Amino acid sequence: MSKILSPHVFTSESVSEGHPDKVADQVSDAILDAYLAHDPHAHVACETAVGHDLLVNLGEITCRGGESVNPEAIARSVVRDIGYDRPAEGFYYDTFRYVSALHKQSPDINQGVDRGSDEEQGAGDQGMMFGYATDSTPELMPAPIVFSHRLLRTFSRLRRSGELPYLRPDAKAQVSVRHENGRPVAIETVVVSHQTTDEVDIARIRRDVEEVARGALDKALLTNDTRFLVNPTGKFVIGGPSGDAGVTGRKIIVDTYGGVGSHGGGAVSGTDASKVDRSAAYYCRYVAKNVVAAGLAGKCEVQVSYAIGRADATSINVSTYGTGKIPEEKIADILMNSGIFDFRPGMIAKALGLLAPKGWCYRDTATYGHFGRPEFPWERTDKVDALKANVKL
User: Fold this and answer.
1) Using N-to-C axis directions, what is the helix angle for 276-293 and 328-337, rounded to 10°?
2) Please, where are the H alpha helices in 125-275?
3) Which of 155, 158, 184, 330 could disulfide-link to 164, CB 3.0 to 4.6 Å?
4) CA angle at residue 48 from 169 to 235, to 5 degrees?
5) CB 44 within 8 A of CB 31
6) Global pTM?
7) How many Cα neighbours within 13 Å face the side chain of 76?
8) Taking CA 79 as the corner, what is the angle to CA 16 and CA 167, rounded to the nearest 5 degrees?
9) pLDDT tens-place string over residues 64-115
10) pLDDT tens digit sequence for 348-385
């Protein structure tokens, strides 16, 4: 049974590829991509920390044939591509200090993960993961995070093309959306804080940024009362790792659903598919999206949990927030027992092509969200017919 949802305003934020935490995520995932190119079964848990004139890699890596991978060269290439190409800014791709503390994976962990077959492969860690979907947007994602990502992708394009040449890589966007009965009806407030060069007047920055933001957002949701707050402090020149430290996995809400639904606490970037913090989070999104696309619910959150070294999930929970067309227990039973989905880590990696990505790479996921983007295989809705065949609505 569906229920009437009270009007409310929900806010989500996104951060750009130049944000210190996102610099770290991209470096970690680019290193992951490099090792997987040598060995699809490589085990990688690569962390990155950045600060003023400093980048540090640490973590565990086991890879056959990976001796030629050069994490430092990868890190410098990623930082250059992001746009930190000015020595005076305090974080320059060619001269920052680099430190590596990468080492081989613990054999205590490896003995539970490598079991010789996809069916028997154990989870690389214990924990719980969540996936979420909602029919309130075409992406089946919450509107505030969709809009926040869209804004910063637009500004990134304009920065890289030179159309707004004074923009620098670090930025944040925050969008507050009013909902009625679960649907977005108006954008109430837009906050954009964007790093710039020092020679441009703040009035011009605010005028340009608001104009771009208005063009990027859904016009039907903008009203005469929509507020735009651009660089509220009046100046944002010192940014990126020179202005603040960053580490891998610190933007887990930006990475997922913008604060809507639940989160198990595990980061997704920097790890291979044996780590269920990543692979099971992708799979739960895949499952939840197919449930919503099949019309079984207007909103769906799937939780799954694992024990390290064990292949089978230890639990599954389904929440539809009162929007389900059939009981939640029935949906959970279908997910676990119909054979449509297989939550074992090795089978997740096989189903989603996580060992040898085609048409995408892990670095692609490290900016502007891991979900709601059609290029990723966990965004497919290829289980809709099978789900419908198991129920009578």
Assistant:
1) 120
2) 143-161, 202-216, 240-243, 252-255
3) 158
4) 30
5) yes
6) 0.94
7) 11
8) 45
9) 998 999 999 999 999 999 999 999 999 999 999 999 999 987 665 555 565 5
10) 999 999 999 999 999 999 999 999 999 999 999 999 99
